[in-house]
Amino acid sequence: MNTCKVAWLVLRANIFQLLVYLLTTVVMAALLGIGVGENAGSDDQTNTYDPPTATLAIIDRDSAGAHATGAALRSYLSATADIVEVTDDTQAIQDAIATQYVNLIVIVPQGYADSFTRAARDGGTLPSLGLAGASGSESTDSASVQMLTLNINGFLGSLRSVMLADDTANLSQAAAKVVNASADNGIASHESIRVEQASGTTPTLPASARVCASTFAIMLYPLMLSIAFIVIVIINAFNQPATMRRVGVSAIPGRSVWMQVLLVCCVASILIWLCCTAVTLICASTCQGGITGIGTRPLLLTLCGTFVFSLMVASLGFFIGQFRMSSAAMNGIVNTVALASAFLSGAWLPQWLMPASLRTFARLLPGWWYVGGVYDAFGGQGAAMTGVPDMGRWAGSTGLMALYAIAFIAAGLVVSRFVSRFVSRRT
């Protein structure tokens, strides 16, 4: 109990710096979430809508599927969007988005046609297309992009229905039937597009669900910065020579002392997690759909994944703290690790937009799996969210974060033993 009291005293002594870290980063994440909510919540709720024409680029990387998906999308969307060409290059894609050359870029990944066919025939979750550009549009462009993503989701849903009805039709044949049916019914018309929530189409998620997912992903930075900082401060206080001498002569085993310290660190991490969760839900509640629009399953899965990530960050701080560096050095390490994790995880830059070599490296970091798990809980990323959790991918991402936590704790205990022996030999 005395160990826990001392750890809480250390926490209280550094509460001001912790609040500065926490409040500034959480407010930043909240403002980004509110901005996304305003764009996502600007949809016209009338039955008949006349959107401006959007500019669309389709990049089809599915050579294994003979580029059938890209050809089908071009044929279906040519009547409702201005389709332009963008080179399949990371720099060219970024330039097209930054200069607003296109409102939306659709990227068809390798193997998409085969994955789509299997999912459609087996009744599984449809694979996601890569979408970019929607979140950065102005108000008028946002309306056209929202309508365009609705058309894409509706086309994929209709394509699945045709393939379920005719198990002999391949993707190209099914797409031709959908395109012909839409042309006959006048669905693809610039004059007026009537939004129908009929069976077989994929409805868009409420803005609150999209804001909830994106804000939880952005919360990676506040969680890492605040939790790692306070855990390292507590660990560093117990690693002071005077404290270590008292622990050495105490009747309490050293392992028990460190377990109590780690327990206090985990409780502090949970409090920070609750703060970030509350801010995220407040942001979501201000958007169209409110809290109820998020969905019970996606919200519970996201909360669980974020909780595991918070404990993982606490174990990372425990590991870093065992090296007994100065407070300035540890603050520098925390800031560097948090910034790198936020950039490489996909919280700020979409994961699919990163170069292949960078994605390979980023997958070694726990932040990648945290952001992936958040979006898996909502069934996709960006405008392609379905609201149906991908349980397999979410469970894999969350399990990996738990393994990272165990590995950091084990490594921290090993480092603590070696450092203690080294210090004792020098003294």
UniProtKB/TrEMBL annotation:
<feature type="transmembrane region" description="Helical">
    <location>
        <begin position="15"/>
        <end position="36"/>
    </location>
</feature>
<dbReference type="InterPro" id="IPR013525">
    <property type="entry name" value="ABC2_TM"/>
</dbReference>
<feature type="transmembrane region" description="Helical">
    <location>
        <begin position="299"/>
        <end position="320"/>
    </location>
</feature>
<keyword id="KW-0812">Transmembrane</keyword>
<feature type="domain" description="ABC-2 type transporter transmembrane">
    <location>
        <begin position="20"/>
        <end position="413"/>
    </location>
</feature>
<feature type="transmembrane region" description="Helical">
    <location>
        <begin position="398"/>
        <end position="419"/>
    </location>
</feature>
<dbReference type="GO" id="GO:0140359">
    <property type="term" value="F:ABC-type transporter activity"/>
</dbReference>
<protein>
    <submittedName>
        <fullName>Multidrug permease ABC transporter</fullName>
    </submittedName>
</protein>
<keyword id="KW-1133">Transmembrane helix</keyword>
<feature type="transmembrane region" description="Helical">
    <location>
        <begin position="258"/>
        <end position="287"/>
    </location>
</feature>
<dbReference type="GO" id="GO:0016020">
    <property type="term" value="C:membrane"/>
</dbReference>
<dbReference type="Pfam" id="PF12698">
    <property type="entry name" value="ABC2_membrane_3"/>
</dbReference>
<feature type="transmembrane region" description="Helical">
    <location>
        <begin position="218"/>
        <end position="238"/>
    </location>
</feature>
<feature type="transmembrane region" description="Helical">
    <location>
        <begin position="332"/>
        <end position="349"/>
    </location>
</feature>
<keyword id="KW-0472">Membrane</keyword>
